Amino acid sequence: MMARHWGIVAAAVVSALFASAPPRAFAAQDAGRVITDEVGREVKVPAEVKRIVTLAPNLTEIVYALGLADKLAGDTNECDSPPEAKSKPHVGEPQNPNLEAIVALHPDLVLATTSINRVETADALERLGIAVYTTAGDTQTVLGMLGSISRMAELMGAKPQGAEMVGRMRQRLEALHARLQDRPMVHVLFVVWEDPLITIGQNTFIADALRWAGAESVVISKQNWPQLSIEEVVRLQPDYIIFTSDHGGTGATQLADLRSRPAWRDLDAVELGHVVDVSEEAVRPSPGLVDAIVQLAHAVHPEVFGESRRAEDETLFATRVTESVGAGLRPVLLGRCQEPHLCAR
């Protein structure tokens, strides 16, 4: 488990290596375009991007969701969603990719993210004359993530597809907000890691995702990944405890396990069965994050999304799965985090 969650805990350290700066508009220059990416780097790319290499699983998911699989020349060893991504040429691990393998693929554009990639990789590729667009993947809000998808879609020549996809996700978020705006926030403990116990800070994109779901962390911290004791959790008494599916169990198995532990079973949430197993998409800045937000909202607000809504919700989910498969994107509730570095993807 420590290996699986190492990536999300290390995200703040990796992102500190990049200087933050707001993205600027596209500008024409010669046969290409000069843009400023999300960490303030000026990047020159061809007028038409034909070959792309992605250095993080969430970026690979975005490329597929935009219908650009034919442009994806290569990805990393950890890119397994959708399954077709595993058949692409691999360039190594996200944090230490093989530069020679990247160069051999002749990419017009490499996509990187501060949530998992290293600034040294971007520097080295830049010196080799390869365009690298870096997203601020681990520090943005949910709406910031949607804006990032729009910018990458435009950069890759898929502006209409990006606008359609982002518009659909915005509509789902707005509909969710309308349903929850009069409801009080549910106080939750989001478990990033169990031993030691690590949760989320106020300024992570996960915290923002919780707010969209009508929830907020019981832990108030400016640290991105604060550590706390189980005694402190007992004192705080969260309404719900949230795990992600990469912890290796379902909500039922997690609940049974917690009820067998002397300290955890003293929590009201455990006694009431308020233990939620949410899709691992909740910890990835990728299109599936909106699905995870909706899933979480249904779990922590049963008074809003009750039995009377079950048939409607199942129909909506079936539609979303059909859309996802049609776009080449894996249905989000079936995923499991199996390898190091994937949990921040």
Short description:
By secondary structure, the protein is α/β, with parallel strands linked by helices. Helices cover 39% and strands 14% of the residues.
Determine the mean pLDDT.
Answer: 82
Question: Tell me, what is the CATH class of the largest domain?
Answer: Alpha Beta
- Percent of residues in β-strands: 5-15%
SSE pattern, N- to C-terminal: HEEEEHEEEHEHEHHEHEHEHHEHH
CATH topology assignment of the largest domain = Rossmann fold
Radius of gyration: 20 Å
Whole-number total of structural domains: 2
CATH architecture of the largest domain: 3-Layer(aba) Sandwich
Low-confidence stretches: 1-7, 9-30, 308-345
CATH superfamily of the largest domain: Nitrogenase molybdenum iron protein domain
Report the end-to-end length measured between terminal Cα atoms: 16 Å
Question: What is the β-strand count?
Answer: 13
Largest sheet: 4 strands, parallel
